[in-house]
Amino acid sequence: MALPAQPSRVIRFGAFELDAAKGELRKAGVSLKIHPQPFRVLLLLAEHPGQIVTREEIQRSLWGDNTFVDFERGINFCINQIRVALGDDAEKPRYVETLPRRGYRFIGPANTVVAPEVEEHVSERTAEGLSPVQIPPEEVRALLSPTAVPASPSSARLAWKHTYLSAVLLTSAITLLAAGMYWRFGGKGKLTDKDTIVLADFTNTTGDSVFDGTLRQGLAIQLEQSPFLNVISDERIHQTLRLMDQAADSKLTPEMARELCQRTASSAVLDGSIAQIGAQYLLTLRAVNCVSGESLASTEAQASDKNHILDALGRTASEIRNKLGESLNSVQKFDLPLEQATTPSLEALKSLSLGQKVLLASGDDVATPFFKRAIQFDPNFALAYAHLGITSTVLGESGAAAGYIRKAYELRDRVSEPEKYFISTLFYKEVSGNIERARQSCEQWVQVYPRSELPHTYLLGAVYPVIGQFEKAVQEGKEAIRLNPDTPIPYGFLMFSYIALHRLDEAKETYEQARGRKLDSPFFHLALYELAFLKNDAVEMATQVAWSADRPGLEDQFWALEADTAAYSGRVRQARDFSRRAMDSAQRTGKKEAATTYVAVSSLLEGLFGNFGEARRRAALAMTGTPNRDSQYMAALALAFAGDRERAQALAADLDRRFPEDTIVRFNYLPTLRAKLAVSQGKASEAIDSLSAAAQYELGQSTATAYDWTALHPAFVRGEAYLAARQGREAAAEFQKILDHRGIVLNSAIGALAHVGLARAYLFQGDTAKAKAAYDDFLALWKDADPDIPILKQARAEYAKLK
């Protein structure tokens, strides 16, 4: 039996279109050569995306039950012709997947366009006085229903699928047409605060490439000031282009932008153009309904010369905001002139635009030179400094980041309102370190711009983890993803928070959710390594390390994780080797601070394990490198463990002087350093008193690096202080706290050494059985440890006395 009759429609996937009425397959509007039967098979598959269509169902749809041909060869011919036309690969299919002995499945992202006869009918009924939602659904359904119904069981299954898809199409048709009729018959040009818009690239007929990408970037910055308009983020555009099988740097022509608009369920496209008339320039901006193509609003402005282009662009942006429904009061309140909100330099703005594109495609290390070039063009470009601060932070260069962010903060009067919140929050977190001020800034940011995911992401990844409030971080992560589900960073940070709470299944589910949207981020791989460590999955850890190989700016972080893991099991020589690889990798990519951090981390490991001479040597080496706040703390703590009180005190005093507002310095680093120094001087009570200030924040993490070396250090030193005071019960509680928070401690060495501390605490309580069990746990963990580690020798000697 033949395929059931279908209403006229077009199915789009990637750059292709299937026109059922004309029997055409088109790519980018150009008709491709394909025989009728392969076309009908492709149409059948595309009508049922994600569902298996058997070879028997294809046979009945093409030839019926009473036709005698070589079905097998005919179907094979059709599938081969389809793959040739689509440029598809049977081994790595993008559109048509073969399921051996079962059939075929269409796996491309298909989008069915509403049948023209449906739109015509709704238009007629609307003209009669009915609103689109008042039209009886059966009238539209009648236009979508097939005129023939298959009778065989397998054909009946296809018919059920078709009925289901028709119902979906009906719902979509009424929804889309209701929106379309709203534009057509009332409220033309007006958006609501629930609508989203897509920015197209400007059509540039001047021949001057400086405008390419630059004008769109400037328009985006200007529109971001609006608390009314909601512009689809570049991250979401990047992701949608991938689903369309388009390059990430594809030019967003008006046609491409309209398809993006429909795929993201947005309401309108803003497309612009620039033309040169003599010495003058004409800028035009137009808002278009992405469903109907109807113009909603337009404006234009002239610039007397190239130096006044950005001023003209700012005027068009302000006018279009008002024409699209934003109140005049709102436009006037949030309308910093574009040159003041960004830069008067077109070249600097172009470099910023290129940097942001490269950042999405290739990462922070590749984008950094573009942001630096923007500053060369305009040394007062605040937004470029802010982006450099972010990329430097991600790359582990927190000292350099603080310098860039401080400069951005000094220039914050030269940015728009949302970017002022962005830069202020960065300053409080990365420069002054005042987490409470950073939190308040984010909350104000949310109040003014409730649809932005950025403040929620910052609370999730940079604020709440510092003070150990991971439940709050999870809530912020969920909200950030709800607001913008196509940005990968919130998924990665949310994974870290779930791991900290030891909710490992939810961390993996978050990863699968991101993967389902075809998102990727280095944070995912770092989190997957942590998950594998907690599950004792050495194969998966090795897989993630292999993923990082030869990835500049990332490889060093995974070697550092490997060093931590080796040290956790007492394999000190291997940890030293991994640490050296991390340092060498960082130096090759110019990450001087990160290289210094790896030396400082290794010095602390040596101090914890009792290799005091090596700890002092490495700490001194770290301080001759490029130390930042965190590496200086680790070197100071290593010296405190190694008994070099004078140098440890000097470094602590310097931290106290340079970071008077820093939350983690004042409530984690300094109390821990002072307490360790007090313990080494036999002043246990003073140490315990010093650490009272850290109690509220001891679960917190630095967040300055991908790995963490600050969480629960106060608890470890407090446990030592209680041991020195011979208070076994209190000491046991501190070491048990470390063991109970594996998701926070992860592969930090204190997670292993806490077993030894716990055993000693039980001995003070006279509980030999529990002490022996704790020693057993430690020795099992360190069964492959280097035999000459001082702490291991001590633990074995103490254990032997219990036998």
Total number of beta strands = 13
Number of domains: 5
Say which CATH homologous superfamily of the largest domain is assigned: Tetratricopeptide repeat domain
The helical percent reads 55-70%
- The strand order across the widest sheet is 4-3-2-1-8
- How widely separated are the two ends? 85 Å
Taking pLDDT < 50 over at least 5 consecutive residues as the criterion, the unreliable ranges are 1-8, 143-187
CATH-assigned fold name of the largest domain? Serine Threonine Protein Phosphatase 5, Tetratricopeptide repeat
CATH architecture field of the largest domain: Alpha Horseshoe
If you compute it from the alpha carbons, what radius of gyration comes out, rounded to the nearest whole angstrom? 32 Å
Q: Write down the CATH class of the largest domain.
A: Mainly Alpha
| Strand portion | 5-15%
Question: Based on helices, strands and strand pairing, what is the structural class?
Answer: alpha+beta
Mean pLDDT: 84
Task: Write down the overall geometry.
Answer: globular
Q: Quick one: biggest sheet?
A: 5 strands, antiparallel
Number of helices: 38
Walk me through this protein's architecture.
The chain is an alpha+beta fold and 803 residues long. The protein folds into five domains: 10-112, Arc Repressor Mutant, subunit A (Orthogonal Bundle); 114-185, no CATH class; 197-341, Rossmann fold (3-Layer(aba) Sandwich), CATH 3.40.50; 351-483 and 492-502, Serine Threonine Protein Phosphatase 5, Tetratricopeptide repeat, CATH 1.25.40; 549-800, Serine Threonine Protein Phosphatase 5, Tetratricopeptide repeat. Helices cover 61% and strands 8% of the residues. It is built from 38 helices and 13 strands. It has a five-stranded antiparallel β-sheet, with helices on one face. Strands 9, 10, 11, 12 and 13 form a five-stranded mixed β-sheet that branches. A hairpin with a 5-residue loop joins β12 and β13 (295-303). The radius of gyration is 32 Å and the shape is globular. The model is unreliable at 1-8 and 143-187 (pLDDT under 50).
